[in-house]
Structures are given as structure tokens and as C-alpha cells.
Amino acid sequence: MEIPVMESSYVPYANFNFENTNLELARSQWPNYDDQHYLRGCKWSPDGTCLLTVVRGAGMHVMELPPDLYTGDTILTSRPVVPLIPAVSVPESGLIYDYCWYPGMNSANPATCCWLASGHEGPIHLWDAFTGDLRCSYRGYNNVDELEAAISVTFSADGQNIFCGYKKNVKIFSTSRPGREYFEYPIQHQASCLTASLAQPGIVAIGTWKNTIELVSQCDGTFRHLCKLSGHKGGITTMAFSLDGCRLYSGARKDNEIICWDLRVPGRPMFCLTRASNTNQKITIDLSRDNKWLVSGGSDGKVQVWDVSQNIAPSVHYELPLHTDCCNGVSLHPFRPIVATASGQHHPLDPLHHTRNVMQYENALVMWWVGYQQEDPDLLTTIIKAASNS
């Protein structure tokens, strides 16, 4: 299988303006009840044309960006909320552990439109984003030659390799060679989270359930240990490199701190930020392409925004109460002032009624406009006339 080599092209930064009231653009809702169809994060495609989400018990879904949002510096406040309908759905069985887009994804080139997903007791699958078909699989095996499920997956910066985190090692597959051929890098604890640096190809951060992060350099199938970072109270669940490669942001389960690491002086954190994370569920963070805005969801349903363009610990720049349940996923659009959020979490059975039907929880995928807004002149005229007539 051949994956095209990524082409470098300039993509403008999104002009985020969090000061305005956040305008809801589009929404998709899943029922909860006994099935507990809660969402597990969301991720914009690298070209910004579509949004990928995983719903527990209801597969993976690709939502397209509404056509009217591709252009324009402002949006009318009277714009109606558009229902999000999946363009592609994959009824993947079992629990999905992790997923990620191919970094060179471009809708103009269908061969690049794909994503990886790893699930319970299964191989790593590469899915076609146009048809929802399974393109190929990558299989990792343990020391007794049993198929082992990857806990975390990510592509290398150039998309030519796939890094997969397992219980005792990180396996690296060649994207163009599906099957069971791979190199291994041994680790002491389960690799719960992986991310690759775009600025420094070959640099990979390995987060573990044992609260530590290991930075390694990979080249031609060989790994070299660089440093180990310790400071979190729980297992690592989310990480993000700055685009210049100098910083790494990390978050952990049941840990209210997001730590910023200065990789030029990796001995201690540069600063710590506070969010609500009192759950074992993964709550993701994201960083804007200009390295200015860091956003995170929270178990309280709020999205917090920090201006991290300076070298000092910032206070919360904005706090957006967007959901009534845990906001476990947040993703910044690569070139439009749009934020996507995913809400929902596992709720235990009511001990009295032995059911979850007592209360309806929010399990929603939502797109929000965080750019400049404009009042609809026709709407203002209607309001003024109604006021004068009364």
C-alpha cells in the first residue's frame, strides 16, 4: 500500500476571538440511556474539512464542515444551528482506545484521506475517510506470539511511520507496509499516550500510566532515550508539542494540572495550569497553530483558554461553560475560528432504579464560532418595529 508523501504548503492561522459570546454553529446528539453512547473526544482533519469523533458503542463518525463556514471573517448571530449528520460512519465493534488522522490528509487527494484507530482485542486499522472502508491493518504481537491491542497510536510527523504504544514496548510500523513487521522500543510501563514533534522529525513523547513522560529520538528503526519528565499525579492521557518544538504540554487522569515543559531545560516544569479533571476518562488539550492559545476541556463541562505566548504562567484567559456534562474533547480548527467540543462520560447505574433513564445526560458533538460576529440588520429592524408597535 502506498501513501503519498506530504507536501509542504502554507496554511493561514485562525483568527480566534474568545471575547465574544460563543455562537453555536452545528450539533449532533447521541442518546445515553442504557447504551451509554458517550463521546470519546474529537479531532479536526489536518485540512480542516471534516471532524472525526468516536462514540462508545456507536462507532466512529466523520462530520463535514458546513459549506458556509469555509469563508468569511464574520458570521451573523442569527445563523441557525445546523444538525451534524455523519458523512462517513464506521460501526467498529468494541472499545476504541485511540485514533488519529493521517498528518498529510488533503481532501483534494483521496489517497491521503484516512485515519488510524486501535481498539480492544484487535489490530490497528487504517480507515478510508471517503468510503469508510478498511484499507489495511497493522498487527502487534506479545512475547508469546498473541495478538495484542495498542493502547495508543500516532503517526510520525511525515506520516511515513506509525508509533503504537503497548504494555511493555512501543512498536513502529512503516505506513506503507501493513502486517506484522515492526521495530520495538522497550518501556517499563504501559504507553498510554503518544505524540510526535512536527518541528523535530523523529522526536516522540511517550506518556505512561505511571505518571511519567519519556522523550525518545527515532531514526531508521533505532531509538535513543533523551530524557524523562516526572510531575503528574496520574497516568498521562493527553500531550501536545508546540509547533516550534520547544515546549510540550501534558495532562493526566484525575490530575487537575496541565504542565508546560520547556524542552530546552527539561529538568522541571516551566509552569502549571489548572483545570477540572476528577475522572479517569481522557480529557484532551489542543494548541493553536500560532502557539498562542491552549485550550482544554474539563469534567465540569467548561472549556478553559490560556494565552501561552509568554514564558510565564498565565491565568485563565477565558472560561467557557459550553456543556452540562464532562467536556472530554476539544479541537481547534487549523485555519478557521471554530472550536469543536465533545461531551459525555460513563455514568454508573442508579442503585435504586438500576437504570440510567432517570436523567438524560449530554452526549454531543458541537462546533462553536469563536471569531468576530455581526448582528443581522434585518433582525434588528424586526426587533425595533416590534418594540415600537408595543
TrEMBL record:
WD repeats lie at residues 229-264, 275-309. GO terms for cellular component: Cajal body. SMART domains: WD40 (SM00320). Transmembrane segments: none annotated. InterPro entries: SWT21/TCAB1_mRNA_Telomere (IPR051150), WD40/YVTN_repeat-like_dom_sf (IPR015943), WD40_repeat_CS (IPR019775), WD40_repeat_dom_sf (IPR036322), WD40_rpt (IPR001680). Keywords: Repeat, WD repeat. One of its GO terms (biological process) is Cajal body organization. GO terms for molecular function: RNA binding. PANTHER family: TELOMERASE CAJAL BODY PROTEIN 1 (PTHR13211:SF0). Belongs to the TCAB1 family. This is WD repeat-containing protein 79. It comes from Agrilus planipennis.
